[in-house]
Amino acid sequence: MTPRKINELFDLRGKTALVTGGSRGLGLQMAHALGEAGARIMLSSRKADDLEQATGDLQAAGIDARWIAADCSKEEDIRRLADDTLQRMGAVDILVNNAGASWGAPAEDHPVEAWDKVMNLNVRGYFILSQQVARGYMIPKKSGRIINIASIAGLNGNPPEMKTLAYNTSKTAVLGFTQTLAAEWGRYGINVNAICPGFFMTKLAAGLIKSLGEEKMASHAPLGRLGDEEDLKGVTLLFASPAGKHITGQWLAVDGGVSVVSGA
């Protein structure tokens, strides 16, 4: 085989990507990265209004984008999302499991129903959607890329002021899920990897960042900054494209170096 040029290795033309939690924040940033590289995009989140706006943003950038509203904490919604995407797009070559939830409470007072809410979306939802997409398209085609969004919160414990036990536990589970699924599905030509973002000013993290102080949070990173609207694009494209064809079962922290100094 003649080695491809670097621009060919990062070319996603002819591929289709499904991005959950894709109507804003990190999900929309990753959708832009995949779409800018040539992929067709199916966005999903719970709210149709947000999805319409996000899809319009992608289309204005020249990206072929569509949307399906679905709650990825509900099994029936997840299965409908996978089936409808395959019916409408004809393929899911790239799955980005990004939909997520958090809950703040001391461990001794953490509501069980809140624990279940976080786990259902952050772990169970990833499993059901990955299984449905793989059975419906990736396994028969012997090809696919699954990118799971974990977090540096899954790499170690928190400072005492950050009381997010369920969230941290769920993101640790995502890393184990990623590695185990990669080992099992490699025989089907499916690459499974995870991204561990640090602190980005997203809706999910904004409250915590503001309460602790943006400058203080940035000071914990060797690079002295929080993540911005570009910082997940490169790793997303690497994991999704032919450039990353020999990478599976891995995670990469995109955190300005926080996990380095914290000992993760």
Report on this model:
- This protein has helices at residues 6-9, 25-36, 48-60, 75-89, 112-141, 165-185, 203-212, 214-219, 233-240, 258-261; strands at 16-20, 40-45, 65-69, 94-97, 144-149, 190-197, 251-254.
- It is globular and about 50 Å long.
- It has 264 residues and is α/β, with parallel strands linked by helices.
- β1 (16-20), α2 and β2 (40-45) form a beta-alpha-beta unit.
- The termini are far apart.
- The chain has a single domain (8-258), classed as NAD(P)-binding Rossmann-like Domain (Rossmann fold), CATH 3.40.50.
- The mean pLDDT is 94.
- α2 packs across α9 (233-240).
- It is 47% helix and 14% strand.
Provide a compact summary of the structure:
The protein contains 10 helices and 7 strands.
Record the SSE blueprint.
Elements: H1 6-9, E1 16-20, H2 25-36, E2 40-45, H3 48-60, E3 65-69, H4 75-89, E4 94-97, H5 112-141, E5 144-149, H6 165-185, E6 190-197, H7 203-212, H8 214-219, H9 233-240, E7 251-254, H10 258-261
Summary tags:
7 strands, alpha/beta, 264 residues, globular
